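Lab notebook, bench 4. Still working through the backlog of constructs that have no structural model yet. Next entry is a single chain of 148 residues. Request: give me the structure tokens for it.
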Amino acid sequence: MKLQQLQSEFDALDAQVASLQSERDRVTRELALCMEKRELIRRLMTLERGGQEAVEQVLSAGFTDEHGSRDKLAVRDGSKPFEDEVYAILKRHAKPVHISQIRTALIHQGVPIPGKGADANIISRILRDGRIQRMEGRRGYYSVKEKG
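Model written out:
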């Protein structure tokens, strides 16, 4: 009898975890979109305040994501495969990068995220790339593999 109760409780918690993970993915996507809109409005306000100097400032400023990392504004020409875009993002950072930062940078660069755009879609693609590694003991962090 006790085993059935435990199994039932386990199943209920398992369903709750799946539901919360799905909600987290939705909220993360919504947050990234909201942050991107906020950054674009900030840039527009900067442009409205001043001429060519403001334009140069906006183009060179880049963005700051929710983790405080900065990336330069990049225009995607569609010539790089997805994995190359992620590799370039990781290469620009001297330390491991969290998956949410990778996603934010991809969004800001206009890189289409495969599948439904969830972290799992990004992770599944980048782990196939031999140049990228998951950091041991640091959940959600990825970096460029060291040579040698």
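Notes after review: The beta strands are 63-64, 70-71, 97-98, 132-134, 141-144. The helical segments are 2-49, 52-61, 82-92, 99-108, 119-126. Flag for follow-up if needed.
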